[in-house]
Amino acid sequence: MKIQDLVQETNTALFANKSRTFLTVLGIVIGIASVIIMLAIGKGAQNEIQSSINSLGSNLLTVIPGTSRGGPSGTGTGGKPLTIADANAIRDKILLVDEVSPELTTRSQVVAGAQNINTTITGIVPEYQKIKSIDMEIGIFITEGQNRNFSKVAVLGPTVRDSLFGIDSNPVGQKVRINANTYTVIGVTKSKGGSGFSNPDDMIIIPLSTAAQYLSGGDSLSSISVTTVETEDLKQVEKEIEELLLERHAIRNRDPELADFSTFNMADLSEAAASVTGIFSLLLGSVAGISLLVGGIGIMNMMLTTVRERTREIGLRKAIGARSKDISNQFLLESVLITCIGGIFGIILGVGVAQLITLSGILTTSVSLFSIILALGVSAIIGIGFGYYPARRAAKLNPIEALRYE
Amino acid sequence: MNMISLKNIKKDYSSGDLTTKVLHGISFDIQEGEFVAIMGPSGSGKSTLMNILGLLDTPTEGDYILDGKNVSSLSDDEQARIRAQKIGFVFQSFNLLPRTSVLRNVMMPFIYNKSEHLSTKEREERAKKALSAAGFPENRWHNLSSHLSGGQIQRVAIARALVNNPVLILADEPTGNLDSKTSDIVLKTFQELNRKEGRTIILITHEHDVAAYADRCIIIKDGVISEN
Ligand SMILES: Nc1ncnc2c1ncn2[C@@H]1O[C@H](COP(=O)(O)OP(=O)(O)OP(=O)(O)O)[C@@H](O)[C@H]1O
Ligand SMILES: [Mg+2]
């Protein structure tokens, strides 16, 4: 049997029952499209989460007082606080550390003229700017000199500026009152977009020394941010910081279980996020996979029905000289053709819908070449796999019995 | 020359431990260019014999020599090849593919005949010639097979049986579903093909009127030949 004869016979058969062929193809289209869409959504979500984690800095490590294990917490329950001295020790004793940024955060009432708001006040050192990659919209950031001199200067987040001095105004040189002291505004940071646990736009930044002196009245810190030059060093640095602080805080037996501080690193966070988004993608993908499977069963159902309906035709073809292989090839090609057509339209639909989701602004989806190859491969396998059994059934028919079939 | 030579052909059907003996040793020869009718009452084994002659089935015992070659025990694929090259069938019913044009129905044997490499154009020429030989009206060549009358269907079936130039045409009750006038036309078509083109034709029937069109009549009763 020549290829072109085979193709022609197959086409005739598929067009003979257009609506059934259409519905079967539709099943595959939906299956393939949903695999592509789901994987694109999963990948898009993963990218989005990773990039927001990366924007926090992938080589960043944070130490906070208290323990995440529910033991003695912070200064209140007996553990030692984190101090500026701890931060200095980290900077001086640990080699792989790049920048160390001790931070002291409180909330306070802030007054400028007639405006009065409650916001976050963070005392920082100049390294903070680099670690948090802060860009200035207007003016300058806190300097080393201002920190040394307990200067009463403030850098405003754009949200704070908008509420105190008016939207997009230039408040440099103006005064704000925080806790009975007057500070001079020296700059406004660029908006980072509100996200995460603390909104960097809704914040006032002042020198750490000033904050310790006038706001908290002690040198206990809220956190110490540490960066390394290389992301790979993060684990090592985390371990060394842990050991150093266990010693400095005189923890019994230097047992990490008893630590009065905790460390987080971005690599762990990003790994955790990756595994969560991975599970999420897998879940979406398997739901889509089930619909693809249902599509495949649809093909098998159609082919089995066709074989039964066309039993006498198969008998006639055999009587005229068709070999078993000619018959099985014809039925196999029918199901492969259905899945290929379904696969192509499914890819078009899937990519289109993924594009629409991106355009609608819900999520920037990402269609990977892998998912397209996967979809095509799976549809080919479905075509052959679910077409094989009906094709064998057709080929095995005895021509005499097939011709007599009612 | 002997086109067909059957030597002591036996056929049993067995399902489980039940064995039905249908043919009990059939022997006869058919010459090239003969028009033979095989007659017998219902259940005598005519269709069984025709299936063996048409290589749709193998005999349990005995030798079948077709066109000089012993074909009594071939594999399915070899049988299919010989069917495609040497035998044309006309059945009582379901001769044509539904939803398919007359011309494509007649061209169908070319799909499965490996020894013929014809272009689509040549195939069409041959199909048209066969349709003319079978007396099928030219203005219906492109009709769908489902829109034809019973007599027309049988003529298309005859054309299809002819198109590959088979050495043997087998017809099992080709007029079983037709009225006497139409069956006369169809049987005359067979007769003409035999007389003008020298085709070897075996016609199976249980009616004497039908058998009268043939040159020779073989009668089987209960699986044996009772008259030749
Ligand atoms: N596959 C089979 N299994 C068992 N018995 C069968 C089978 N096919 C046919 N027979 C039996 O063989 C006998 C002959 O059947 P066959 O079809 O050859 O008769 P026939 O002469 O063609 O009859 P009719 O004129 O009614 O067509 C019958 O008794 C039938 O029951
Ligand atoms: Mg019969």
Description:
Chain A has helices at residues 3-16, 18-55, 84-93, 127-131, 144-148, 158-165, 208-216, 234-248, 266-309, 311-320, 324-360, 369-396, 399-404; strands at 60-65, 97-112, 115-124, 136-139, 153-156, 175-178, 181-189, 203-207, 223-228, 261-265. Chain A is α+β, with helices and mostly antiparallel strands and 406 residues long. In chain A, β6 and β7 form a beta hairpin. In chain A, α2 (18-55) packs antiparallel against α9 and α9 runs parallel beside α12. Mean pLDDT of chain A is 87; it is low at 70-77. Chain B has 228 residues and is an alpha/beta fold. Chain B has a single domain (2-227), classed as Rossmann fold (3-Layer(aba) Sandwich). Chain B has helices spanning 46-53, 76-86, 102-112, 120-133, 150-162, 180-197, 208-211; strands spanning 2-15, 18-31, 35-39, 61-66, 69-70, 87-90, 168-172, 201-205, 216-221, 224-227. In chain B, a hairpin with a 2-residue loop joins β1 (2-15) and β2 (18-31). The relative contact order of chain B is 0.21. The model of chain B has no long low-confidence stretch (mean pLDDT 89). Residues 46-47 of chain B line the site of magnesium ion.
Low-confidence stretches of chain A: 70-77
The assigned CATH architecture of chain B is: 3-Layer(aba) Sandwich
Q: What is the share of helical residues of chain A?
A: 55-70%
The spatial strand order of the largest sheet of chain A comes to: 2-3-8-5-7-6
Report the CATH topology name of chain B. Answer: Rossmann fold
Order of helices and strands of chain B: EEEHEEHEHHHEHEHEE
Average pLDDT number of chain A:
87
Give start-end ranges of low-pLDDT stretches of chain B.
none
Major sheet summary line of chain A: 6 strands, mixed, barrel
Strand and helix order of chain A? HHEHEEHEHEHEEEHEHEHHHHH
Task: Provide a count of the helices of chain B.
Answer: 7
Taken together, the total number of domains of chain B comes to 1
Query: Based on CA inertia axes, which overall geometry of chain A fits?
Result: elongated
Number of strands of chain A: 10
Sheet with the most strands, sense and barrel status of chain B: 6 strands, mixed
